[in-house]
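Example protein was shown:

_____
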Amino acid sequence: MRGMRVRLGFQLSVTSLFVAVVLAVGLALVFLSFDRARSITRSAALSFIDRVADHTADRVNGQFKDVLDILEVLRQLQPIESGTILGNPPLYATLAALLRRHGQLYNLYVGYEDGGFIELDMLDRAGPAIRGQLQAPPDAAFRLSVMERPPGEADRIRFTSYLSSDLTVLAQDHRPADYDPRERPWYQGAFEPDAAAITDPYMFKVASLIGYTVRAPFTQGRRGIAAGDILLAETDAFLRAQKLGASGAVFLFDDRSRIVAHSRMSEFFRARGPDAALELPRLDQLVAVDIARPLALWQWGGAAQQIFDTADGRTYVAAFRSIQAAGSSGLKLAVVAPLDEFFAEIEAGRRQLVLLALGFVLAMLPVVWWIGSMLSRSMKVLALETDRIQRFETGGPTRRIRSMIREIDDLGQSVATMQTVVRTFASFVPKRLVQQLVATGDALQPGGSRREVTVLFTDIAGFTAITEKADPEQVMLRTSRYLAVLSAVITEHGGTVDKFVGDAIMAIWNAPADDPDHVAHACAAVLACREANHKLNAEFEREGWPAYRTRFGLHTGEAVVGTIGSDDRMAYTVLGATVNLAARLEPLNKEYGTEILVSDAVRQRVADRFEFRKIDTIRPKGFEATVQVYELCGMTGVPIE
């Protein structure tokens, strides 16, 4: 019949495809022999180990090259060349920007031939213990150390500052210099013609951590060395992520067969104890298999990837790479893995694809590709749509996904319906509550719990007189516009609009989502609402519409939060004395000629961040105790998180 769409069953399509692929692969495997499978296994092992070595070497090379590029920029900066390092905030900002951009660096520093020194550390990259050791302020992101001889002083002074993420000084002190960069391993020998750009690992004095330094000397201006530290723990973690099988390993070593970085390097040094000399382990101390023969073959011009047998009869695959960015340091990368572990399933099955199987699979690829695309296209679109619904992105027209597969087509209809339902549901229930229900999958059920909330009530002064003789349609349009503006401001500040009562708004903070700083967010929201109201009134006056002058009442305290109602109609709200007091505060603005009245409970919580003016001490109707009432005037300038 014309107009009818052909729809195939999804289950039948998937089953037919699965059976066809399994039968095709199974019949192809019958023709495989053990010798051919072993040959292909070895070839695949070499190919894979080669890709791992290339990937890891590129990452290590890139890491060193990035740091060297940073140091090249750093040593050419005019303040660095001239040695203008004391009291130079633009220089400190540049160092911080370089550290933020390159996550492998713990710090950047410059040591001068005359003993001058500047260092900027990114505290969190050295682990939580460093904060306790340095007694850094909790909000400190950087530690700045400058050792310089100020004018008129005979000795060098260490100036130490702890900076926030925006480089605000949180704490600082100064004392006689207790550190000489010229005595440290990263400085010594750096000006020699054959000096390596990367040092051997050594103990960083400040952080008491093991790492190595990338350095770049400069002779222009105030002669010195620009350097940066890469913690060994970071390199260990990266190499550990490249581990192959239970016994495979990736590691860096030098020309003297000393291991510079290994997934178990930190464990090795911890086992030796803090008082032991920091001597790099040799290959036979951390590598379980003897790689001397394949290593020698590679160094004499042999293949970079090899398969070799050990004395115990086990077969290993290895790949070697030179780390070009390390320069004269002679760093090399090795990737070693046992063949039977890494390709255990292939060796156990003794079957692998041959040219016949490959040809058969290639012949089937167009058909499989067409079927797969047909099945997956609509599913991908549906997944994107459901993700949008889960993220509560329900704006725009409803999109109907169509498919030839009956089940997918029906699912597309269900998703479109769900999107419409969620959008409609969100118009009558607080958006944050709907987001929480969608995220958790919980059903909306009657019930509640006690928790601390901040409650806001608003009302428009003289609203009845304003709208009494106005066009009802214009009243609805202007009032909806007003409510939309204030609701948007409340939502931006973490609040939830509980309900609209005519021209009034009831909003809450710290429900349904937790907000530890809900009082401050509520105060900021009210001030922002007042500002938005003033701007909207200016628009109303230009349009010939009376201004809506809003009064606000704000209180914080414990209340019952949850849903009330019947099985077919429920509402999410808060109940209790806290709500009643907030509602009593709003109309008192008329008596005192104010716009925003808050309780003493609000003032006590945020007195350091907002300005208040005491208005009166009252006994609200229905309350036995008196309440001090304050006017919220503005913010003090202290930032709100």
In short: The first helix runs from residue 10 to 29.
